[in-house]
Design goal:
This protein has 405 residues and is of the alpha/beta class. It has three domains: 5-103, Tetrapyrrole methylase, N-terminal domain (Cobalt-precorrin-4 Transmethylase, domain 1); 106-206, 2-Layer Sandwich (Methyltransferase, Cobalt-precorrin-4 Transmethylase, Domain 2), CATH 3.30.950.10; 223-403, Vaccinia Virus protein VP39 (Rossmann fold). Helix content is 29%, strand content 24%. It is built from 13 helices and 19 strands. A seven-stranded mixed β-sheet has the order 13-12-11-14-15-19-16, with helices on both faces. Strands 3-2-4-1-5 form a five-stranded parallel β-sheet, with helices on both faces. Strands 6-7-10-8-9 form a five-stranded mixed β-sheet, with helices on both faces. β12, α11 and β13 form a beta-alpha-beta unit. The longest helix is centred in the C-terminal third of the chain and has 14 residues, at 284-297. The protein starts with a strand and ends with a strand.
Length: 405
């Protein structure tokens, strides 16, 4: 016996539906979907429910109705490709849901363009404006297909591209695929910013083939890869260990306080591609360095904030992870502010070369009932001599890690 709920992908239009899919839709007691999709079946005598922002309410409704009704949920494209299918499977259980997929928007788009897409990267901006993953793909020379939404459409995206040094990217905007007024525009980001587009669109981005790709990014990059004040940058080895202690993850909210050159924020972008990175620094010329480094490495989900700590973070979302690389005599106040905002089970990592600040960091975190540990990093680098090498010692650095219960 078939499950009481069927999710049907409609492709780009009702023309993509199979005979089997149409027959299941016509037999439904309840038809669920977006207003545009349901409108294609106004002739059917069945109950209708539009999908809005309240997905929990939708799940509750479906669970109440499933025992006594046959339900069909309509989605555009493929229900499991950035669709609502994954949510419904999680909520209702895979054994209670039957899924009939269809052509995804990306597949349809590249069919229109007559181009293969097995190597294309796909990014969704539905309900989010974090573009770090997108910039990383473009920086690596990849073609990227971007699902947009009304708030983060092609014009908005074009501005982000120019802001991050990708003004030479080729944009192809495919609007209202499968409909009589379908339109395909091949344009530059500058042109896109002056245009208006349908809310129903997919954007394909292609880096200029002669463009130099973004520099390779890896933990503990040499200091000369960054724009920075001479000597005022977290050293490569210390940076690598600090990132390890932070235990970053993809969707984390990360604060880099006293960011200096932003080197820690930049390398955090390796691990946080769909989260949020906030790089906070007081000095104006260092802010310029941070922005230059952000553009150089294409960290699109990184926001740069000029502020004197511990102020300047009031409007930021609570962090999952915090790194403090500066602070001077205000370090204790900065730690207390950050520690009180840190989410449960969050981690804060502090670098210091001063004994007074080491004591302040340990005592402050312990006073807040954090689980605290400390290590010291002493790096000796080989320096060439006439007939051999000698080791030149860098300043020892204490790395204090605090974990919130």
């Amino acid at each position: 016996m078939a499950p009481p709920l069927t999710i049907i992908g409609m492709g780009t239009s009702p023309d993509d539906l199979t005979w089997r899919q149409r027959s299941i839709i016509e037999a439904a007691d309840i038809l669920v979907g977006g207003k545009r999709l349901i409108a294609h079946f106004d002739h059917l005598a069945c109950q209708r429910r539009e999908i809005g922002r309240d997905l929990k309410g939708l799940g509750d409704f479906l669970e109440r109705q499933m025992p006594d009704h046959t339900i069909v949920v309509l989605t555009s494209g493929d229900p499991l490709f950035y669709g609502i299918g994954a949510f419904l499977v999680r909520r209702l259980g895979a054994d209670r849901v039957h899924i009939l997929p269809n052509v995804s928007t990306v597949a349809a788009a590249f069919a229109r363009l007559g181009e293969p897409w097995q190597d294309v990267r796909t990014v969704s901006l539905h309900g989010r404006d974090h573009t770090g993953e997108l910039m990383r793909h473009l920086g690596g020379g990849d073609t990227v297909a971007v699902y947009t939404d009304p708030a983060h459409g092609p014009s908005w995206l074009a501005g982000i591209l120019e802001e991050n040094g990708f003004s030479d990217v080729n944009m192809c905007v495919l609007e209202r695929l499968g409909m009589p007024d379908e339109r395909i525009s091949r344009i530059t980001p500058a042109q896109a910013q002056a245009m208006t587009f349908s809310d129903l669109n997919l954007v394909v981005l292609k880096p200029d083939p002669v463009r130099q790709t973004a520099p390779a990014l890896f933990p503990g990059m040499p200091e000369d890869r960054f724009a920075h004040d001479k000597g005022l940058i977290t050293k490569a080895e210390v940076r690598a260990v600090s990132l390890s202690r932070l235990r970053l993850f993809d969707r984390a909210v990360f604060w880099d306080l006293g960011a200096g050159s932003g080197s820690v924020s930049i390398e955090a972008g390796l691990f946080i591609t769909r989260g949020e990175i906030y790089s906070v620094e007081q000095k104006e010329w260092r802010i310029r360095h941070i922005r230059e480094n952000r553009s150089r490495f294409g960290i699109g989900n990184m926001q740069v904030i000029q502020a004197r700590l511990p102020a300047g973070t009031t409007d930021l979302p609570d962090p999952d992870r915090v790194f403090i690389g500066g602070g001077g005599s205000a370090l204790g106040d900065i730690i207390r502010m950050a520690a009180n905002r840190l989410k449960p089970a969050g981690i804060i990592v502090i670098n210091t070369v001063l004994t007074d600040n080491l004591t302040a960091a340990m005592h402050t975190l312990e006073g807040l009932s954090y689980d605290v540990d400390m290590i010291q990093i002493q790096v000796n680098r080989a320096t060439a001599m006439p007939f051999s090498h000698r080791l030149e010692a860098a300043n020892p650095v204490w790395i204090v890690t605090g974990r919130r219960p």
